[in-house]
# Entry
Amino acid sequence: MITQMLLRNHDKKVLWFALAILAAAVLVPLSNLLLPAGNPLHVPDHMVPLLGKYLSYALLALALDLVWGYCGILSLGHGAFFALGGYAMGMYLMRQIGPRGVYANPLLPDFMVFLNWQELPWYWYGFDQFWFAALMVLFVPGLLAFVFGWFAFRSRVTGVYLSIITQAMTYALLLAFFRNEMGFGGNNGLTDFKDILGFNIQAGGTRATLFAATAIMLALALLLSSAIVKSKYGKVLVGVRDAESRTRFLGYRVENMKLFIFTVSAMMAGVAGALYVPQVGIINPGEFAPANSIEVVIWTAVGGRGTLIGPIIGAVLVNFGKSIFTAAFPEFWLFALGALFVATTLFLPKGIVGTLQQFAKARDERKVAAAKEHAYQEQAAKSAGEDGLASAHTQAAE
Amino acid sequence: MTTVKPAALKTTNSILYLDGVSVSFDGFKALNSLSFVVEPGELRAIIGPNGAGKTTMMDIITGKTRPDEGIVYFNGEVDLTQKDEADIAQLGIGRKFQKPTVFESHTVWDNIELALNRKRGVFATLFYKLTPEDKARIEEILETVRMTARKDDLAANLSHGQKQWLEIGMLLAQEPKLLLVDEPVAGMTDAETTETAVLLKEIAKTRSVVVVEHDMGFIRDLGVKVTCLAEGSVLAEGSIDFVSSDPKVIENYLGR
# Structure
């Protein structure tokens, strides 16, 4: 039933876009590994994890768009779900270091030895297994979103109030993860990773594979999101966004509708975080910073909320711009970001993709009108011709 | 020996039964011991000056507002004060808002499809597929509210009157036993008003309808029993001629 739903009529553009991402999943690693460094099509080594990072951000933006663009829940705390997924992956990578750490403790990560801890805290159990960590990447953000959403949506907290408490949530987690006693490496977070699934995390092949995994995950998430928003459930979500009380009076349990998409979205953000961490090599409490979650909102708005392709394009473009900008004028990036958000709100309220869609629609409508006009004129010309012919006949008969 | 059923909650055979309902907001008594009864299959019009409590009464029936005191029974057995909006909608009470409220970014067709009386859970809607019966039902409703030609248009592009009709169509799709309609002809042309009266009478053949309206001409067109509210309770009840000749009604409402 689920596969059937996933294969259901997707938008053609979404399908093409997913295929393009899959093509990138193959072509970028191939070009990096096989082409010589001088070749103009060669993707340099440092670009691979950078591109992978952009795509994991794109997955995060897509997750946010599901709740914001389609259900009208402006979450300013999606960075928290991303970071939790990242920490779950980071814990796995820490346990893989084993006795190769600075203190060569086979069980305890370096920071615990440094803090004089004698044994592994219970919540670190199981993270030496990849499958367990992968499960936690989904489960922990999902559970937090479920519990948070359960209370928030049942109490009918909406609009700006909800946005504020999501900010408070990510800020509270930021403070908590800063504490050394929490057992997540405090200020420094988790870093110095050695390998993933037995492969050296620094090796070119591993990085290329991580990029490919990120791209494939993004394509799958895009198809899943498309299946969700195309279903009747997706239409109900848009109904909640546009006229919440109407949806309620039609008999839909709005709180359950919101809770489901919020939880799915948080899990998607968790996966994004888990793919991000091995590619950047570190996860620390800074990822919980409220400003990070706000940045995600900007990527989504720039690309076009309420479209599925928009947030992906927005995340990649803005972060590409950020990489260039922070290298050239590091002090001015936040001003540029703010200006970008203001400009988008004023001049492109539907974002890049939304505006393009509008143009395409207007063009199609003109085409249809022109075709109608053309057909009408032809019809007129034809009947005029027939009249002419008929009168010629009558004249001839006379 | 047959066991005698305990005196059940079955108060009456009425579809809607309100008794002594009061509610106040910040000290203002919006409803003051309001009581009235709607029989199954009845079409009832409710009139009254602004602030008489007409919309508050609808809020209470549909679960949006909880009364401070009083009882509200649906179908003679269901206590509505214990339920929320979604429960009450699923029980079979539909509500049309004063301002037409449709899903603007959906097509006319999708609006009706969403309103259709089917399972409304997350997973039921996630895996929903349009069956031939549902398709036929949607087409039938579109025909009834005269929207077939516009089925692929976005609801946002409809005129005010058409939105009102679409919303009525959505309520029909919900297959309610009781329909609450708040000012259906506000902002409509005279021709549209007359047509709406015909449509409502048609709808009332198969269910109970309560209409709140200011337009006395429209109420006359309906030709049904009228309840006049003022200051949160019933002022007069009866035929339109009876109610409109009542001196209290003239003083409180018509005379103003």
About this structure: The beta strands of chain B are 16-25, 28-38, 43-47, 69-74, 78-79, 93-96, 178-182, 208-212, 225-230, 233-238. The longest strand of chain B covers residues 28-38. Chain B touches chain A through 29 residues (CB under 8 Å). The domain at 16-254 of chain B is CATH 3.40.50.300 (Rossmann fold).
